[in-house]
Amino acid sequence: MDNSKAIFLKEATVNAADGVQRAFISKALGGYYTNRDLQKARYRDWERARDAASMAKWSAVNDLANVLEKFVKNFERNGGVVHWARDAAEARDIILKIAEDAKAKAIVKSKCMTSEEIHLNDALEKAGFGVVESDLGEFIQQLRGEAPYHFVFPCMHVKREAISELFTKHLGTAPTDSPEELTMIARRHLRQLYVDADIGITGANFLVAETGQISITENEGNARLTAALPRIHIALSGIEKVVNELDDLSVLLPMLATAGAGQPMTCYNTLYSGPRKKGECDGPEEFHIVLLDNARTRLLADPEQRDALHCIRCGACLNVCPIFKNIGGLAYGTTYQGPIGSVITPHLRGLKQWNHLSGASSLCGACTDACPVRIDLHHHLLHNRRNAAKESPTLFDRVFHNGFNFVIKRPWLFAAGGRIFRASLPLLQKLPLPYMGAWMKTRDLPKAPTQSFREQWKHDHV
Amino acid sequence: MSDARTDIFARIREALKVKAPKPHLKAETSSPNTSVAAKPWLPDGGETAEDSLLILAEQLAKLKAVLIRVPDHASAAKAFAELATTKSWKKVAYHGHELTRPLAATLTCEAWEADASFDKQKLEGSDAGLTTCESIVAQLGSILVSSRSSGGRALSVLPHVHVVIAEASQVVPDLGAALALVKARHGTDMPSMLSFITGPSRTGDIERILVLGAHGPKELFLILVG
Ligand code: SF4
């Protein structure tokens, strides 16, 4: 069994049985559902808004070459420097080179999932650069030495007592059980870091082709500070983040906030075009953007699932997913958790090792309903299962499908099989069946009917 | 070996040779177009100026931002001075502008013009920042500041309290209108930073419990004249 799958199965089994932790996660998400519904009710027509949001992303992604080119031209006109990275290693090298050239002493980062994807912090630290995550949740996860649990709420699984202990250990502060006081500890600790840092690294939520601006969404103000005080600003972004027009944001920004966090608008939505301009008193002297492919073009090449690139990383699909809520974010072992992670990870990192995530779904479709840009998430999980069966069928796939194929073409065999199956049903109940163990443990098989469906139909209708 | 840019564009062009179907839209009527200015399906921003002001007041209250409405500039200065006394500010940074200077002049504590002599350490130690804004979005309760209208990038986010002075005529109904105004005003010469501020800085990272003042200001005041 592949390593990623083994870890997934082990973690999922343990976490799903941890009632206390599951109740904690449910409680944490409780407020989100209430606020999201309140905010959604303010939309005069949420479904029309979803139409507009999905069309905005569809038109940009399906014309990606032209839209990117336009973005880059305008970004450069604004005085920014563009870098291209085919994969994670190239992106890391580009950022390391900028840090080395600048002889950077301190680097401050705001939340950026793309940087998790390329394992940027490890690379910077190995090269001797100190780097501090400034988003509160990411800061806590960095101190814990753990990957984010949820790509919007990174430490939603950690209890306040554990955070208090963590701060006492690393920052030497007095224990407290108040979330407010804990937040203030981090605030006090990080403020001077923004002032002292040479380089600020951020992500980007949208790249606006029309104006060459990048848009960053955040609640805490840490990205604002990261892009204001250090001498160099580096933004790292996937190539799929483009939109055509500035006006597209009038739909996407509120929907991102409402779908993902139940807010009318995230606290800070900021557009950056270039480094400090003439006549401005602060802001970085250099502004770099690293545009990353890292297998996104592989997903682009699949027209059936291309819409997965429309994702605006709001996190709504995680918040409503019964699997995510039961097994938790860390079990996935991926940068992007939940339904969207299960869809895209096999494309980004290989279907063979990651196909097990296609099964991490009850196919209830809650994710597809929640998605503000209408990505057909649960069908894509089925598409991945189908593709995996085609690409590298397991022994079970082969035996089962060939067997089924053989039987279904021979009505007499099918009827005979049915009779044998009905007769042996009471016996099956007691046998330890392969593949069925987990299912049978908590369920009884129904009583077998005396006639097959075809026999009953003939009897009643002919 | 070709460079990364060439390679990535080649991959994109190759990938897009096969067309993807349009998304399944729910709307029965014609295809929705994001460039339709009104967007009558988003949250309401008000038909008239009066409606918009009502919606704005409601949104700001929900966001825990404080709206102070005053009839004229003299009362704005008075309100600001009172705020400074109640909060016992010792140092206030402000953006140099005709709207802000009369307010700063009424203060008895230290007041310094941040964009005239920028000093990030001094800004970090300031109790409050006073700025103007580009516009105010009634629909969402957002205040749009820019590096031009608000004394650079840090003044509106580094001090512990942010106070915005604006005129009622700066209120626009919705986000689309605010973005259109930005384009009309700045064209291709945009300020290097434009930020929609929607309430005081906040986080829910610890057990999803709301705490105000994560890294940015803990309090946000909007003094609206007229
Ligand atoms: S797939 Fe949709 S719901 Fe999930 S994070 Fe992306 S945009 Fe949000």
Topology:
The complex is a heterodimer of chains A (462) and B (226).
Chain A: H1 3-16, H2 19-40, H3 46-61, H4 64-77, E1 81-85, H5 88-101, E2 106-109, H6 113-117, H7 120-126, E3 130-133, H8 136-144, H9 160-171, H10 179-196, E4 199-202, E5 206-208, E6 213-218, H11 222-226, E7 232-238, E8 242-243, H12 249-261, E9 268-272, E10 286-292, H13 296-300, H14 316-319, H15 322-327, H16 338-349, H17 351-354, H18 366-370, H19 377-391, H20 395-408, H21 411-428, H22 437-441, H23 453-461
Parallel strand pairs in A: 1-10, 2-3, 2-4, 4-7, 5-8, 7-10
Antiparallel strand pairs in A: 5-6, 6-9
Helix pairs in contact in A: 2-12, 9-10, 16-19
Chain B: H1 4-15, H2 49-62, E1 66-70, H3 73-86, E2 91-94, H4 101-105, E3 110-113, H5 120-124, E4 128-131, E5 135-137, E6 142-146, E7 161-167, E8 171-172, H6 175-186, E9 193-197, E10 202-203, E11 211-212, E12 219-225
Parallel strand pairs in B: 1-12, 2-3, 2-4, 4-7, 5-8, 7-12
Antiparallel strand pairs in B: 5-6, 6-9, 10-11
Bound molecules: iron/sulfur cluster.
Iron/sulfur cluster (SF4) is lined by residues 311-317, 340, 370-373, 375, 377 of chain A.
